[in-house]
Design brief:
Keywords: Magnesium, Metal-binding, Transferase. By secondary structure, the protein is α/β, with parallel strands linked by helices. The protein is 41% helix and 14% strand. The structure holds farnesyl diphosphate.
Length: 249
């Protein structure tokens, strides 16, 4: 039996508040299929996906989860039909304009990660504004992968390190895991403890490959727009049932 939504404003009693993930990552998959199941255009699925994301962010705040990172647009997503790509870019821009004051009020710090310079200029502008006005917020650390690809992220980190080496500022033996992590887009965040992927797919799809070396993966069969508080509760319950060994016995 699923728990009614009204009971889920505070942390469900069967979850241990001391063993919650500090950082949850999500691959919001299945918007298109959600729409197709309802004989709606795919873009309606993306609109519904925004509502699910808002609710998850609110839930992280209510339940005391400090960081949420989502994959909104991958470096591979440019290969979708032009109409859908343009719709998504406009949707991100509209949602940011619409929600920014609420994000500020709720104390959320929003960051965008990815090759942002390739996004439409109007979107880049609102992204810069949103990051600046929430920069000192200490509530949920909300990170959005937009034109993000983990391999691209690692490539740009390597380029910056090679550049430092070329200038004589870096020696080969100084390159270690910590230094590489410091040159990733996510350098201010802890690694995710839990990755949620919806729509039953069990792939990483080039998301946070370095950061998720020891992340617990939870695959939900629901399409992203249907991923609600009871579904998040189930994901956290599964997470708390696992033994994290980080390669040890
Ligand atoms: C994957 O479903 C979803 C996306 C590529 C877009 C996700 C974006 C949002 C939910 C909006 C987020 C908004 C902001 C402002 C951060 P899919 O299209 O791959 O679905 P399918 O696999 O069923 O085709």
């Amino acid at each position: 039996m699923t728990t009614p939504h009204t009971l889920l404003r505070s942390l469900p009693a069967d979850l241990d508040p001391n063993r919650l993930p500090h950082h949850v990552a999500a691959i919001m998959d299945g918007n298109g299929r959600w729409a197709a199941q309802r004989h709606l255009p795919r873009v309606k699925g993306h609109q519904a996906g925004v509502d699910a994301l808002k609710e998850l962010l609110r839930c992280c705040k209510d339940w005391g989860i400090g960081a949420l990172t989502v994959f909104a647009f991958s470096t591979e997503n440019w290969g979708r039909p032009r109409y859908e790509v343009e719709f998504l870019m406009t949707l991100f821009e509209k949602v940011l304009h619409r929600e920014l004051s609420e994000l500020v009020e709720e104390g959320v710090r929003i960051r965008f990660v990815g090759a942002l310079y390739l996004l439409p200029e109007a979107l880049q502008q609102i992204i810069r504004e949103a990051m600046a006005v929430t920069a000192t917020n200490t509530g949920v650390q909300f990170t959005v992968g937009t034109n993000y690809g983990a391999r691209e992220e690692i490539v740009q980190a390597c380029r910056r390190l090679v550049e430092q080496a070329r200038l004589g500022q870096l020696q080969p033996e100084e390159v270690d895991e910590k230094l590489i992590a410091q040159h990733l887009y996510t350098h201010e965040l802890p690694d995710p403890d839990l990755l949620i992927r919806t729509s039953g797919e069990s792939r990483l799809s080039n998301f946070l490959l370095w950061q998720m070396a020891y992340t617990e993966i939870y695959v939900a069969d629901l399409m992203w727009p249907d991923f609600d508080r009871p579904a998040f509760h189930a994901a956290l319950k599964s997470y708390q049932g696992r033994q994290r060994r980080f390669g040890k016995v």
